[in-house]
Amino acid sequence: MTAPRIAVLGAGAQGAGIGADLVRAGHDVTFIEQWPAHVEAMRARGIEIRLPLETTITPVHALHVCEVATLREPFDIVFLLVKAYDTRWAVELIAPHLAPDGIVVGVQNGMTVDDIVAVVGASRTLGAVIEMASNMFDPGIVTRQNAPADSWFAVGGIDPVAQARAAEVQSIMSCTGTVEVSDDIRSSKWMKLVANAGELVASAILDLPLAEAVRLPGVHDMMIRCGAEAAQAALVDGSRLVSIFGLADSETVDPGAYAARLLGEVLDKYSLPDTRTTVLQDWMKGRHSEYDELNGHVVRVLDGAGHAAPENSRVVGLARRIERGELERGIHLRPALLGQTSS
Amino acid sequence: MPGTRIAVLGAGANGAGIGADLARAGLDVTLIEQWPAHVEAIRSEGLRVVTPDRETVTRIPSLHLCDVATLREPFDIVLMLMKAYDAGWAARLIEPHLAPDGLLIGVQNGMTAATIAEVVGTHRTLGCVIEVSSEMDEPGVVMRHTPAERSWFAVGSLTAGGHPRLDEAAAVLGRAGTVAIVDDILSAKWMKLVSNCTTLVSTAVLGLPMIAALETPGMRELMVRAGNEALEVGARDGRTILPIFGLDAHDVARVDVLVEVLLDALYAGFVLPTTTTTVLHDWRKGRRSEAEDLNGVVVRRGAELGMATPANDALLEVARRIERGHLEPQPGNASLLLSLAR
To answer: Which residues of chain B lie closer than 8 angstroms to A324, CB-CB?
Structure first.
């Protein structure tokens, strides 16, 4: 078997960090990215990855999305690292360039597996959970706060043909983190969504690094309540509360305990004092965030089953108004976030 | 129309040229484009449009694709001028930014209306036929062979009884050319496909301007055969023959010479001696062409209906060889094409 042709579609902070490890492990990798200045920087200087203990610069083959139409050879594996809300168009963009037996691995937050399946089919789709922290504000330069030894992934498919590929993908990704094969990827993705629902948007609404946000009075408890609603949504959706980032003793049926344990793990292992969430990074850049694919999804799932999701609804409402320019993010929103005032 | 927010999604040669006409008419138009250097050039120098008898420079707000995630206000009308094969993903990209009562208009070749409607719904979709000839090799500079007075569009709704905003859409496009409102836009688009199957790939595989290709021995006959195959496949699907390019019902009354009438009307009205087709432009830029969305549609639909389409088979085969890098577009390909089509 010849070496697989790999694409990283969405070479932002996370995608470029993972892609650089794949290149350094000797894989045939093409970066495909939408930010023109970032593509130019990577072409000129390679991708610079600032890890906690070292900085690496790796020459990479980078294409702008407008160059997809110049591709002749199909890809065997596409690692998809675009925002959840970009999933559908990005997969449709790359689908003509995916080998008939190729596979798209959605290394994203949010429940994106079905969006990928809708385009390329279940037999060519793997979902993935990603747990690592990175940021990028300057083109060509990624700060990756979790080295591979401290990064964690789970991959799995909803179809036996795809699931049979999971071990191969696990092996390829092992250069960039600990990778588990999940036999229930929907539940694994819900596990991550429970974590995301609590911390990502709420800390961004307060305009604070996560570690600072949780120290504000009432915020930690609010995040756990938010996560507990998400855990309840997971159960309503037919998923299980699976082990947290591979911890053997963390499986449970209690949404509140599960959310608390998850938030604790994120804070302990995947967050530095200055870690700003992906949502806050988007807002700092004037960009749309994933709030609707995260908290919005929780609200919709619970609503569909006749349950309320007051914490997540409040998060969605505030995030929407921030994105519309009706509210400024900041700690003055803490009472509104906690439901103590009308906003 | 005041207050109507318009986007041109895909500001290539045709898209940018049309966008410039709209902007110069005072409409609120934003260009969204995937070629970074082109966006940068428009931002810094303005958009230059060169027509046979004049040149204009127009300032137009222009966004990179990656800037779509910064948009806050939805668009009321989006003119999509992407390649047919990009219609699906481009519609997905823009859908969150289309107003609930907005319109996404596929101003493109190929049968893309259903693809668009699947994403934004039939109620927000209009089909469109475009007959505009332009080229762009240098970022920020459009060579428009057919200025507005020689450009032609047809628009129509996918639902019987039309669409409440059809007149408004036609008025917008009317700034960039003559607009016909048609009742059966899918048939009109198929008529354009017939014309496209006649000329676009056939002339491109020779690497020649359209006029020189037509004059190559054997080519006119092959082109007309390809057009007739497309016409017959469409007829079997219930497509009606409609006058396009400003022809009238009398011009298209005789089916036996229809493809030749279309071909001659196209060449007389829209083709300069130097004009080459969009397919050849793509190949010269190392890009994929619309061959699969034009001749390929006829070949695949013909196969489903049990109809032979040898001329389109040959055109598609040669196009595929070119796109795989096995052949270069060149005049010598005529003999290969003619032998394959036998």
So the answer is: 72
Rounded-to-integer distance, Cα B85 and Cα B108, Å: 10
| Chain A residue nearest residue B82, CA to CA | A66
Pairing mode of beta strands B125-131, B98-107: parallel
**pLDDT of B226-261, one tens digit each?**
999 999 999 999 999 998 888 888 988 899 999 999
The reported pLDDT for the residue numbered A244 is: 85
The per-residue pLDDT for range A276-333, each reduced to its tens digit, is: 999 999 999 999 999 999 999 999 999 999 999 999 999 999 999 999 999 999 999 9
Band of residue A1 on the pLDDT scale cut at 50, 70, 90: low
Residue type, A223: M
The arrangement of secondary structure in B187-340, i.e. its CATH architecture, is Orthogonal Bundle (1.10)
d(C-alpha A111, C-alpha A124), whole Å: 17
Q: Which residues of A touch B71 (CB under 8 A)?
A: 288
DSSP H or E run through B126: strand B125-131
Q: How far is A296 from chain B (nearest CA, A)?
A: 15
Interface of A with B (CB under 8 A): 34-36, 39-40, 64-66, 69-72, 83, 85-86, 88-90, 92-93, 96, 282, 285-288, 323-325
Say how many CB pairs under 8 Å bridge A and B: 62
Q: Do domains B5-183 and B187-340 have the same CATH topology?
A: no
Domains, chain A: 5-183 (3.40.50.720), 187-337 (1.10.1040.10)
Domain B5-183 is classified in which CATH homologous superfamily? NAD(P)-binding Rossmann-like Domain (3.40.50.720)
CB contact under 8 A, B72 and A88: no
Neighbouring-strand partners of residue B56: B49
| Interface check B96 vs A, CB under 8 A | yes
| ipTM at complex level | 0.90
